[in-house]
Amino acid sequence: MYGLYLEAVNDYINESYGEDVWRLIENRAEIPHLKFVRHQMYNDNLILRLAKAAGEVLGKTHDELMYAFGVYMVKRIGNYGYERILKVLGRNVRDFINELDNLHEYFRFSFPKVQPPSFCVEEECETSLTLHYRSTRKGFTQFVKGQLSQVGRQFYNTDIEVEILSKEETEKMTYVVRRCCAPTCPAAGGHLTPAPPCHGFRLAQVYKMNFDNAAFKHRMPQQKTAPSYEKLPMKRGIFFDMFPFSVIFRRDMTMYRIGDGLKEVFSDLQGKKVNEEFTLVRPMLEFSWDNIYTHLNNVFELLSKAVVESKQKDMREPPKKPLHLKGQMKYVPQWDSLIFLGTPIIETVEDMIKMGVYVNDLNLHDSSRELILAGTQQSAELQLALDQEQQKYAQLQEIIKKLDEEKKRGDSLLYAMIPKAVADRLRKGITALETCQVFPDVTILFSDVVKFNEICIHITPMQVVDMLNEIYIVFDTLSEKHNVYKVVETIRDAYMVVAGVPNKTTFHAHHICDMALDMLSSIDHLKDPSTGDNIQIRVGIHSGMVVAGVVGLKMPRYCLFGDTVNTASRMESNGVGMQIHISQTTKDHLEHEPYIIEERGKIFVKGKGYMKTYWL
């Protein structure tokens, strides 16, 4: 699959749900590509993995997403430069669908490695059309359905109701039949023609499409003998000179006339069966008279089963290559025969050498000669340009990967200073002042090291840093465990966390008290560098109202303001080593909870007077 389809899925998710959602889907699908290149080949399963991941993230089904992808692909086709091709594919919906099987042929030079599905119209009336869809890929049924519906709306102002009538999947084949018919159509109540077997494909499906098919005209029965004034006698040699790669065969598939060019390549074809000497590549049908006769409006591709021996004597090892023909099938009633008017599919001069075909073997009345010769002259330049673009793409991918890594590092640093929810609001253009909020009920914890100043006198500055680093690593781990926010602004040995900011919760006091209990039990292995004794800490907790927001420009910080902050600090400074000192408001939040609380009594608190406090 080419990157064109994956690019459309990327654009759809970004436009509909935002870049952050796309990143989440991309990571969940484990997609290694940071940017899809339109003309680069990718694994067919990538789009299915994206649809599965998007369904998990967005809560949508696989069918809903694949249908939406198909609709968007047609909507944005103009952005990819192919809208004009779709517009001229047919005058109406009927013509478009009948020409659909040939669409990928027009993209052969832009997308040479494409593996197109097959579309065949089986039954038709003024209000109906039965479409058979065959593909080597699984999982794209709804994608095609969305494309068909959108084509009717966008290019023909016609509503097409697409219904899946039958579906067959095997390890190598998908076969789908879609019938487009209104309730008044005779075909709506009838039975479908049994689907011909498909070989080498993974999905086969039948679509029913309801739309106004007024463009349909019943075929008139053909006359056995044409009027005399329409007869244009032509010698056999002139005809086969005009169509050197043509084949005429009867109902038993026996070839009784072949073109001069084909004779030069395979001299012993005449009298053999065409389905034994050639494989039908397109349309995706069993190679039989009935199947060909009912699909005369399709382009046919035949691939010889025998390889062509090169006649170039100067080549050391003449390569072998089958002959690939593309053309049209026509029924000739006077002969009761089918005639295949074909021309070789040759992309380069090297292919001609391998096949033993020469320029003068090709038709004069089409562009085969010009395309091959002109393409050969430009192929070297195009290949060089392609190699350069691929090199630039590889460099770009590496740069984007490094940029993404740096972005993650920057985000990690930012979220350490500012809560993620607040940082995301700032990125959307909210000013720092607008981030300020009043939180009526939160709980704050302060802690410090007992006799910190005395310890610092007896040890080196680096030992002080190492000691605090060990303590903070333990406390930071606990803050993540208990879902509390660590306030960045820390002075000396003081450590401050808060619950209820910026994410509000009714259990803010419980989170902080649980963390405080873990803090006491988690530092029993930390030693005082000056004495070798265990380090002791004091913990103070208070609950109340605060104002929180981002302040500063050069180094913005998320800060808390209010009397609650000061009171929590006083609880810590008036505390005792290896004890948790809490205020009356915090105790009130812990009523009827399994915490052991002892009354300390009233103490004098600077700036507050006498307060009744407790030990937790």
Automatic annotation (TrEMBL):
InterPro entries linked to this entry? A/G_cyclase, A/G_cyclase_CS, H-NOX_domain_sf, Heme_NO-bd, HNOB_dom_associated, HNOB_dom_associated_sf, NO_sig/Golgi_transp_ligand-bd, Nucleotide_cyclase
Any one GO CC term of this protein is: guanylate cyclase complex, soluble
Q: Which SMART domains match?
A: CYCc
Please list the residue ranges annotated as the Guanylate cyclase domain. 443-572
Q: Which PROSITE patterns match?
A: GUANYLATE_CYCLASE_1 (PS00452), GUANYLATE_CYCLASE_2 (PS50125)
Top-level taxon of the source organism: Eukaryota
Q: Which residues form a coiled coil?
A: 379-406
For the keyword rRNA-binding, the answer is: no
Q: What is its EC number?
A: 4.6.1.2
Give one GO molecular function term.
Answer: guanylate cyclase activity
Please verify whether the record's keywords include Lyase: yes
> Where does it live in the cell?
Cytoplasm
User: Might you name a Gene Ontology BP term for this protein?
Assistant: response to oxygen levels
User: Keyword set for this entry?
Assistant: cGMP biosynthesis, Coiled coil, Cytoplasm, GTP-binding, Lyase, Nucleotide-binding
Concerning its family, UniProt says: Belongs to the adenylyl cyclase class-4/guanylyl cyclase family.
- Name of this protein: guanylate cyclase
Q: Which organism is it from?
A: Tetraodon nigroviridis
